[in-house]
Amino acid sequence: MQTVDTLIIGGGAAGLQAALVMVRARRSILVVDSSTPRNRFAHEIHGVIALEGTPPLEFQERGKKQLRSYGVTIANATVDSVTDNDRTLTATLSNGETVAARSIIVASGVDDVHPDIPGLEENWGNTVLHCPYCHGFEVADKKLGVLCIGEFSLHHAALLRQWSKDITFFTNGMELTEEQRADLTRRGLALVDGPVTAFQDGKVLVGSTPHAVDALFYMPVPHPHDEFLTDLNLERHSPPPAMGGSLIKVGPAGATSHPRVWAVGNVVNPPAQVAVAMGEANAAAIAVNAFLVEDDWI
């Protein structure tokens, strides 16, 4: 069984950044990653200086290549379970291997759960989008739609008004108050009532009536990849509904309720963009190394 100072679970932006800091601190590490980052459906990364326009999978491969130049091993796998063994944690991987680690940084991300409406998931990352800061500039001044999936969609619609004046808000069966309707109308949004039945060929179908848009925005519900940590009984919290049902609770620098486990990026902060996730991971890696500096002498 391999033993490392730090096991890093996830090889997206957060995991790669944490790995870089740890290996440059001369720590033995293993990165476990399935090569399915959350942003793989997007054409390009935006809003990150010097990475502007980089395809997500190209970014990931470039990061992995840089880590390998330091001698880092990246296992193409997922983690099935983690158990506590006093001063180490044992992780069982999907490839059958087991790893003993003195510390773990969880950067395993989330899956985006889409409404059960035909055409949404199929067009995700193309004409179906979520983040105005990530994708708004590319569709600025075009005809946009906002699909209502809850209270947060009202804020989403108001935010998108910064990128376009031509926005249609699809209530999707949600009953809006008169105040909510008045606010959306005041901002210049058109309202279309009734359940959305499909999205196809750039058209939002409400019943059998098509409404053409250049892009449709909504926030899918994030599902965190953290089931493999169940045996550790980490403390959790319930964020607002738009951020998912339950997330691992973290403190400064991503510290969890277990003294040897840190968690960063979308798995604990679903709205975090690439730059934010990398910043969280950088801080966590520094904290982990500081912990190990003391643990070395116990």
Automatic annotation (TrEMBL):
SUPFAM superfamilies noted in UniProt: FAD/NAD(P)-binding domain (SSF51905)
Entry's Gene Ontology molecular function annotations: thioredoxin-disulfide reductase (NADPH) activity
Domain FAD/NAD(P)-binding: from-to ranges: 5-281
Enzymatic reactions: [thioredoxin]-dithiol + NADP(+) = [thioredoxin]-disulfide + NADPH + H(+)
Keyword terms, alphabetized: Flavoprotein, Oxidoreductase
The keyword Membrane appears for this protein: no
Name of the molecule in the record: FAD/NAD(P)-binding domain-containing protein
